[in-house]
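User: Show me a protein chain along with its predicted structure.
Assistant: Here is one chain, sequence first, then structure tokens.
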Amino acid sequence: MATLKRDEDLTAIGLLDEPMRRALYDWTVAQGRPVGREEAARALGITRALATFHLDRLAEAGLLDSGYQRLTGRVGPGAGRPARVYWRAEREFNVSVPDRRYERAAELFATALADLAGETMPEPLEAAAREMGTTLGKTSRRGNQTKRLMNVLASGGYEPDLDTNGVIRLRNCPFHALVEQHRPLMCGTNLAMAQGIVDGAGVSEIEAVLDARPGFCCVAFVPKPKAAS
């Protein structure tokens, strides 16, 4: 069974080696919502038939989920037939050669820490997480403060999304596999790392806070209130 899953993961990841398919996957994921074939084709500047081919291949491999919905926003007679739409699948794909199982070590450590500390964030872990975040933040010191954070978060796998209010939310949590069983521990770790990233990037106008929203990581980066003059 384990060998079958590894083979499936290898096949799925191998599909992303094709440049157009990879670009289509990345664009679909970045939207954060179901997208249709026509929209995807326009965004990538390709034909609808080619977009359909690649989207269906990604869905067959489990990299995308798919379903049907009306894209016009209308209901009732004359609303048109539902169109097939695609969005990122929840399933994770991991391949290492030779085979490694680092997630098991992470689960063991998280379980042991949670048992020792209960609901309290262990100080050594908080300090280590903040230090790691500071190191990551120092890799991005160019551009304005928002741009610095966006760059380092993107390189760290967080998939940052900047909204119209200047708040940066994270579409991906690199620790997602551990969050459900160890939410206080992992969210606290994530926050400490985020605070370190802010410090390391030399950002003073934005702060990292816990602000869980559906579809996003528990941490958000929000502009600090401007001092009254």
